[in-house]
Amino acid sequence: MRPDQSLPPDYFEGMFKADPDPWRFETSAYEQAKYDRTIAALAGRRYDRALEVGCANGVLTRRVADHAGDLVALDVSDSALARARARCAGLETVSFSRASFPAEAPAGAFDLILLSEVVYYWSDADIVLAGQRIDAALAPGGDVLLVHWIGETDYPQTGDEAVAKLADAISAPFQAARSERTDRYRLDLWRRAP
How far is Cα 85 from Cα 60, in angstroms, rounded to an integer? Predict the structure, then answer.
């Protein structure tokens, strides 16, 4: 039975304290291929200001930085953030913050919001709040990029539930600009109306 509350920050801190790469983002061929598809979904677009929620140890952050003039990367784990900062040292366009999105959100507008493998950790109430945060922060014509495992989870949501519930929680008009599904994950790119 899956929990009905969002997973707490200490869950992730415990994971990263026990293993600096608990999901093998640095070494897994599956993760690398998924990151290749994630970057390809951006279709070469350059974003003025991007937000990455759940940056973990910064493997994807480093790649997304090439597509953003300013990238704000959030995570709830201090241990993960330390690894991400080290990985992205020298990238002046990337800033990191310890924050528990959606309860905490950075100020300002973004033309890319990246939610890779995070929404299924959230309760229904937090998904509704995330929708409100996205409504407030996503610039006209901006993109929301979601990538989620679609296998069984012991998290509050499955990948499919997470994506469907977030789509319902966003009230701003958007279109599905891209949708891909493999046997292991789904990728969804939503574009807000200009």
Answer: 12
Q: Are strands 185-192 and 174-181 parallel, antiparallel or unpaired?
A: antiparallel
**Two tokens, residue 183:** 């046997």
Q: Are residues 158 and 166 in contact, defined by beta-carbon separation less than 8 angstroms?
A: no
Which residue in the block uniquely carries the two structure tokens 């012991």?
154
Q: Give bridge partners of residue 73 from the DSSP assignment.
A: 52, 96
How remote is the C-alpha of 93 from its chain's centroid? 18
Using one digit for the tens of pLDDT, what is the confidence trace for 152-183?
989 999 999 999 999 999 999 999 999 999 99
CB 152 within 8 A of CB 184: no
Phi, psi (rounded to 5 degrees) for 90: 90, -10
Alpha carbon of 181 to those of 33, 157, 185, 189: distances in Å? 13, 18, 6, 12
Question: Using CA atoms, how far apart are residues 38 and 116, in angstroms rounded to an integer?
Answer: 9
Q: Which residue in the block uniquely carries the two structure tokens 């994950």?
A: 185
Question: β-pairing, 47-53 with 110-116?
Answer: parallel
Contact between 166 and 127 (Cβ < 8 Å): yes
Predicted TM-score (pTM) of this structure: 0.96
Amino acid identity of residue 132, one-letter, is Q
Measured between alpha carbons, how far is residue 47 from residues 95, 139, 169 in Å?
15, 11, 24
